[in-house]
Model the fold of this input.
Amino acid sequence: MHRPVCVIWMNEWRNYESALERAGLADKFELHCAPLDQPVSDAVAERAEVLLAWRPAGQLKRMPRLRWIQAMNAGVDPWLGDPALKPVTALCCARGSHRVSMPENILGALFHITKPYMAIALDQRESRWQKRMSIPLAGKTLGILGLGAIGQELARKASVLEMRVIGTKRTPVPLAHVEQVYPSEATDEVLGAADFVVLLTPSTQETINLIDAKRLRMMKPTAWLLNFSRGAVIVDADLIAAVAAKQIAGAILDVYRQEPLPASHPFWTTEGILVLPHIGGGHPERGRAIADIFVDNARRFLAGQPLNAVVDQARGY
Done:
């Protein structure tokens, strides 16, 4: 019986090997596991049919027989940008592993904007009693650009806070907890109506530089921009200018064109912009969530069934 050759190439490889063992699937594959400082041998790479890894790191051109790639992130830009990726190879992302943590972190950002706890903590360092005002989120409009799984979960949680939720989806359909779903072409309408704009769009040719000077002018001067999607969605210089000129109230950013964000970048020093160190989707149980996705797809792969979270290579997500 043929056992597909599966390469698990990452420092945490034991967690994923153990997950396959617990599911009774480890012996169904010819497994080759190694940390990143141990290159995959030519002999194994030549026969590899399955790859689980964080980044392609030049491996795809060495693996001509790949049938399935399981990426570790929801965003797969490095994989799609590799010219050695074949259209016939199923590229699966870790869609769903951020569904709980990302909305919670976005809500944390909304609370940071409207609740003066940070200022109060700084007051305490000076033993200073300073009356401050908390702004309710109830009644405010949350605009979500990109109503995928994370956006819909954010909408559900925001609705419990009595926020009005609107947003965009490439294929607009009615969604629970969303008052109105607009097509991507109506992005400007969402920008103009929202008190908080959250970017959750995938990185595609259509979304690169989506938020530029023209679109920032569509927003209310009291509105905040929150980017938890991809750094390239925003034109950095245009956002800095808009915040500095008080054209919008401010921005909270968790993703950047270059990470780590260089110390010389103006985001660090622009008053009204909060720099987050890409905390959006990370959580202590994320590894287990991705292992569950991998094991489920491994079972499907062996049975010849359709895989979950397959990326449309043409669309980019």
User: Anything to note?
Assistant: The chain has ten helices and twelve strands.
